[in-house]
Amino acid sequence: MHFPLGLTGYEAVGDRMGLNVPGGTMELPIDNIISLEPEDTFPPSTAAPLYDGRYSTLIRAAALKQGIDEKLIEQVIATESNFNPHAVSRKLAMGLMQLLPGTAARYSAVNVYEPG
Predict the structure, then answer these.
(1) Which residues contact residue 98 at a Cβ distance below 8 angstroms, ignoring those fewer than 6 apart?
(2) Residue 4 lies in a domain
(3) How far apart are CA 71 and CA 53, in angstroms?
(4) Is 114 inside a domain boundary?
(5) What single-letter DSSP state applies at residue 95?
(6) Is the whole-model pTM more than 0.70?
(7) DSSP strand pairing (9-13 vs 24-29)
(8) In a domain, 3, yes or no
(9) Which of 3, 45, 56, 90 is 20 to 30 Å from 31 by CA-CA measure?
(10) Which residue range(s) make up the domain with 74?
(11) Per residue of the chain (116 residues), what is the pLDDT tens digit?
């Protein structure tokens, strides 16, 4: 699975890579990392200029289901799409969490632009 993240920093320690993202840190085996590339940035859109809590219920449900902090999900969305559900990167990653087409198909995401 490809999962693009907006990194604020990273550090290799042995065979693991510590990835710093806004709101937290995660550690992965280095072999699981395909590449580290400059990220696309999305300016505030007229569709969602600032996070206003409209996705709170979905974020909370996802955090509970996956066992991760809500703030981490919020920060990933803020970094990846700036809460613009219609964001598309130059690599064709789409939606709030910037799903790549293959990832969307793998998880049967019917409309990546429609949260929930």
Answers:
(1) 4, 80, 81, 87, 89
(2) no
(3) 12
(4) no
(5) T
(6) no
(7) unpaired
(8) no
(9) 90
(10) 9-35+44-106
(11) 556 666 777 778 888 888 777 777 788 888 887 777 666 665 554 444 446 688 989 999 999 999 998 889 988 898 889 898 999 988 889 999 999 999 989 988 889 998 87
Distance CA 31, CA 20 (A): 17
The answer to whether residue 2 is domain-embedded is no
Residues forming a β-bridge with 17: 12, 28
Q: How many CB atoms lie within 10 A of CB 22?
A: 15
Structure tokens at 99: 């799903």
Task: Give the whole-angstrom CA distance, residue 93 versus residue 107.
Answer: 14
Distance CA 75, CA 32 (A): 22
Q: Where are the alpha helices (DSSP H) in the chain?
A: 56-66, 70-81, 101-106
Residue in the block written with tokens 């929930």: 116
